[in-house]
Design goal:
The protein is globular and about 60 Å long. Helix 9 links the parallel strand 3 and strand 4. With about 230 residues, the protein is of the alpha+beta class. The chain has two domains: about 5-100, DNA polymerase, domain 1; about 105-225, Cytidine Deaminase, domain 2 (3-Layer(aba) Sandwich), CATH 3.40.140.10. The chain has nine helices and five strands; from the N terminus they run αααααααββαβαββ. The termini are far apart.
Length: about 230
């Protein structure tokens, strides 16, 4: 059996699995990216390319957020492939933006429902910043850190650039505990204090919301912010 037949059979099995399960819940991240590359790289072992992309960028979201130049530096990714991935990333971000245009940040029920959907399916922790308009609605989102666990770390430049680009005077933080309780850890509290101190008086942090496996907790609503402000 030639390599073409092997690739064809593997791809059809993956597609059949997707059709049977009607979703991606059981697919590993590299398998999702592998399938995404099927039509972009019709004659290539996309499993290897997917692993190289994830090895370089860390996760699917960051792959789809990378620019063409950065993508082209990954072995096996040419200009056309990079352009397609970058285009898909822009489509994803537009769709994501449309999903939160009507989310009112001060309506905890609405915000909780949105954030549960936002983090649904994540297998690692993500720390995200959301800019809030004067009318109290989410206007943009930026991932600050991926895979955080027992350490409090994020790139401060990424946050300051995000605030500047979106002219944000109000900020919401949120992160997920994929497999555990939403109860805040000492690291979560330290992170919140760190961000408030960093922002000073120029930008107001309205809340830090934690999304657990079965619940959503607001640090402001639980009274934690009284110790920070």
């Amino acid at each position: 059996m030639g390599n073409g037949d092997m690739h064809s059979g593997h791809r059809e099995r993956m597609r059949a699995r997707f059709r049977t399960e009607n979703g991606l819940d059981s697919f590993a991240e590299h398998e999702v990216l592998e399938m995404l590359l099927f039509n972009i790289l019709p004659r290539v072992n996309t499993n290897e390319t997917a692993h190289r992309l994830l090895g370089e960028f860390g996760n699917l979201r960051e792959v789809l957020s990378a620019d063409v130049g950065a993508l082209c530096r990954v072995e096996g990714v040419g200009v056309k492939c990079a352009e397609q991935l970058a285009f898909l990333g822009h489509v994803f971000r537009r769709a994501e933006k449309e999903s939160f245009l009507m989310v009112q940040a001060d309506d905890f029920a609405s915000l909780s429902a949105y954030l549960k959907n936002f983090f649904c399916g994540d297998s690692v922790e993500r720390l995200c910043a959301f800019s809030i308009s004067g009318a109290g609605r989410i206007t943009a989102c930026k991932v600050l850190s991926v895979g955080i666990s027992d350490r409090v770390t994020f790139d401060k430049t990424v946050l300051t650039d995000f605030l500047a680009v979106n002219s944000s005077a109000t900020l919401l933080l949120s992160h997920n505990h994929p497999y555990g309780s939403a109860e805040p850890s000492e690291e979560d509290l330290m992170l919140t204090r760190q961000v408030i101190n960093m922002l000073g008086g120029g930008v107001r942090l309205i809340d830090h919301v934690i999304v657990g496996a079965d619940e959503v907790i607001s640090l402001r609503r639980t009274g934690c912010f009284r110790a920070f402000e």
